[in-house]
Predict the 3D structure of the following.
Amino acid sequence: MINFKIDILRFLLCFIFFIGSISTANSQSRTKLSYGKAEEMGVNGNQLHAKVSEIVVEGIEAGAFPGAQVLIAKNGQIIYHEAFGFHTYGNQQEVQTYDVYDLASISKITTVLPAVMKLYDENNFDLDAPLKSFWRFFKKSNKADLTFREMLAHHGRLTPWIPYWKNTINTNGSFKKRTFKNKRSWFYPVHVTDELYLHRRYKKRQLYKAIKDSPLEEKRQYKYSGLPFYMLPHIIEKRIKMPLPEYLKQTFYDPIGANTLTYHPLRILPKEIIIPTEKDTFFRKIQLHGLVHDEGAAMMGGVSGNAGLFGNALDLAKLMQLYLNGGIYDGQRILKASTIQEFIRCQYCDQGNRRGLGFDKPLIEYHPQNSSTAKSASPNTFGHSGYTGTLVWVDPDEELIFIFLSNRVYPTRNNPKIYRLNIRPRIHQAIYDSFID
């Protein structure tokens, strides 16, 4: 009976999320993703399917991840869209193409970044203005004169990360006073888990203060940091005069039909289609399932620019196609093409920093041991990876989108096999190798 109910649920979800959300190959809209044949896009479909399946199955059999979704689109046509394996190593529920993953740091280029791009379009966000002009809280800090151009390109001397949750723990392992309670109240409204609610003033008094007081790196060079992505939701909301999740839904996700892209997925999606991540043994002490994996994002109430967004490969591909189209999707102009070009270009290449504004890019000098892209990827390629085992790359030169979603952190983050086996870059290269000369 349970399996029958799950099957019915899957059918309904498939209908809801696919019917009417994506065009057919004969659609009049050339800016909306559709399904097409690999050979018509200049790709050897048999070779592509065989090689991608081989690499993904190798990863599953090696225990790098229990399951995955892979989507490949070329010239606006989806030529590969498959699901592999199971939600967990228990092999009880197979991954479906509509299932939803914790996107982790892909959130950076799918939440606050499109919002910043929209504000930039409207002349309401100066990338070269100092931080103190955005937020007076930082006026007397060592970050007062940093610009978002520097910070978004990971060139602002910011410390890589701050383990915010550790500041809530006493030496005996208990939570400090005025941090958490096990029931929601006016003083403790921030939901972290169903039995863990954060004090309403903690974010301002402790989390933002930790960012303000953090030291700067001595040398100005590329250093990946999530700190600006914790600041941006507050800054953006002050300008748009509405909650960030609502703004993203109205401005980006709904217009392109990206129905599963969301914060707080348990509020709108059945738990059965959400892939679990880690069993948290040190902070929240529960199996994370529908709750953001990143501890800092959890303490932000699940809404952060650093992490927190969930979605499936298809809906993520729609947003990437919007970028690839120069800001148009399904005939609608959402962002300016010039803005997208500014954000995806390498900002400090002359100083050895490959990054765009928020976007990751291929290494300036390719090294196979360190690269997360294919050797054949063009220098114009942009995208991002996620700690939970996710990755997206967009190559404008080839009009190519590659998405890989997994939960490699299940049941523990102490599993580097996805990196050791070089799973994602090998799949990426297999795509280029399947191009028909």
Remarks:
- The first strand starts at residue 34 and ends at 35.
- Residues 124-243 form one domain.
